């Protein structure tokens, strides 16, 4: 009887801790978003006079139109879309091909290349910006959208390792059968390996897409023209030496979240299946 009571007490404590943790971390995650949403509906005077969590008396819907027009967010969305499509397409192709070579071919230096990729992840990106800026300047890539796209195409080491992990679960016998049928290695990659990497591609696109869409430092450094601004730096319009208009910044943040939210709602089935398959394969 005592063992049963002890077991019930442990179960209650475990359940309470689990749900308390979920509620607490959900609250911590949603609180900044709620604060941003409330601030987005305040006019300048009300923002200065009230706290960030105080509900506005007059809901200033015009803040969204003002933020969209003043920050030229339509052009910023077009620029971000171009960058996102080009970077994702090139990154997936380059990463999967590199992973194919490292996984399927055994050659001198294979393990060394993998170690160098791992070593590259330990280097902070900011520490290499002086060299990268000089290279970008010498190639004439600064203040050009194509230059920024080429720089962002740099393959992520995490993406390479994701593809390598998936390829290790694809039998080599498929390659051997295709070679017997007369296929070359490019055909094996394009028609056999790449279609089987769909879950890995979805996972990599999520990771790379989020980092590219939210990238601020490099975009602000290399895209200096107002016509080349991406969504992440378009809201810089409302900052200046005389103060920051955080109500318009928050309105712009809410607008910038809408495309990602729409994409997630439309593609959530594929996103969940890709992440789940990635967890199983890894």
Concise overview:
The chain is mostly helical.
Describe this structure in words.
There is one protein chain. The chain is mainly alpha-helical. Helix content is about 75%, strand content about 0%. Helix 4 (about 75-105) runs parallel beside helix 7. It is globular. The chain starts with a helix and ends with a helix. The model is unreliable at about 280 (pLDDT under 50).
Fill in the keyword field for this structure.
282 residues, mainly alpha, 75% helix, 0% strand, globular, disordered C terminus
Task: Tell me the number of helical segments per DSSP (H or I, 4 or more residues long).
Answer: 14
Radius of gyration: 24 Å
Report the count of strand segments.
0
Share of helix, binned: over 70%
Structural class: mainly alpha
Largest sheet: number of strands, sense, barrel closure? none
> In angstroms, what separates the terminal alpha carbons?
43 Å
Shape: globular
């Amino acid at each position: 009887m005592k063992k049963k009571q002890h077991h019930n007490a442990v179960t209650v404590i475990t359940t309470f801790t689990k749900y308390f943790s979920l509620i607490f971390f959900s609250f911590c995650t949603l609180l900044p978003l709620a604060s941003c949403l409330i601030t987005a509906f305040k006019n300048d005077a009300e923002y200065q006079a009230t706290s960030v969590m105080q509900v506005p008396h007059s809901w200033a819907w015009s803040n969204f139109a003002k933020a969209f027009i003043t920050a030229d967010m339509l052009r910023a969305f077009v620029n971000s879309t171009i960058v996102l499509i080009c970077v994702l397409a090139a990154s997936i192709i380059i990463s999967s091909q590199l992973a194919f070579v490292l996984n399927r071919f055994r050659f001198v230096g294979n393990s060394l290349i993998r170690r160098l990729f791992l070593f590259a992840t330990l280097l902070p990106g900011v520490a290499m910006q002086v060299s990268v800026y000089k290279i970008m300047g010498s190639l004439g890539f600064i203040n050009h959208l194509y230059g920024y796209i080429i720089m962002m195409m740099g393959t992520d080491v995490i993406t390479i390792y994701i593809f390598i992990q998936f390829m290790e679960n694809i039998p080599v016998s498929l390659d051997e059968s295709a070679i017997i049928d007369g296929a070359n290695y490019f055909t094996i990659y394009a028609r056999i390996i790449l279609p089987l990497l769909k879950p890995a591609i979805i996972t990599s696109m999520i990771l790379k897409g989020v980092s590219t869409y939210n990238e601020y430092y490099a975009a602000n450094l290399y895209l200096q023209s107002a016509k080349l601004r991406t969504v992440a730096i378009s809201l810089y319009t409302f900052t200046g030496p005389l103060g920051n208009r955080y109500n318009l910044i928050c309105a712009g943040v809410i607008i910038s979240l809408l495309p990602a939210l729409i994409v997630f709602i439309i593609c959530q089935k594929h996103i969940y299946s890709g992440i789940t398959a990635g967890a199983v394969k890894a």
